[in-house]
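Illustration 12: Acetyltransferase (GNAT) family protein.
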Amino acid sequence: MTAVSTSVTVRRATRDDTDPLISVLAEAFFAGPVADWLIPDHDDRRAVYQRYFELVLHHGLEHGHVDTTIDLSAVAIWYPRPEPPRGTSPEHQVALEAATGVYAPKFTLLEAMFEAFHPREPHHYLAYVAVSPEQQGRGVGAALLNSYHRRLDAVGMPAYLEASNMRNRRLYLRLGYRAGPPLILPTSGPTIWRMWRGTPTATGPAAFPATEPLSRRRAR
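Figure caption equivalent — predicted structure in token form:
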């Protein structure tokens, strides 16, 4: 199904779109505090990101919902989360280590922290959204997300994401998200802003839901 928002045409991605969308993801996430923390060496980063985002995109196409634009300049990877996550599968961990090599410990830690502090309430999770550098700042990312937000609003379903920089955080606030308690990555890592887009209230965006580390939930 294709939806049009302003001048951006959004459609669901297919496996035929894999190569260009992997490049969009790798380029969009190449610079930034999380990238610097994960892989300080730029030459290594480029090679690892190509393999890592190939894994990410294939996983999204198989297990989630992937939207793109008609010109393949942007991509968003969503996952329905009707219940709390149950942990990383052994198969995924093997694939992650193969893709990221010596940098696997930090990638594993990042994914584990995201999972541990995930909201309990049913929602859809925006794992990744990326816009090619030459198209950034033109409203493409907002249009891509608004297309999916309309579907969520129609069924009263919240959305959740993690923002890795202040520019993106400001965009998500404009799109109706509310910031929650941040995560600070260890070993001098950057701050990650957890954000929730719930059903709007009379006073504005819905409050961020109460959360606790996954380990405590499992202990009960």
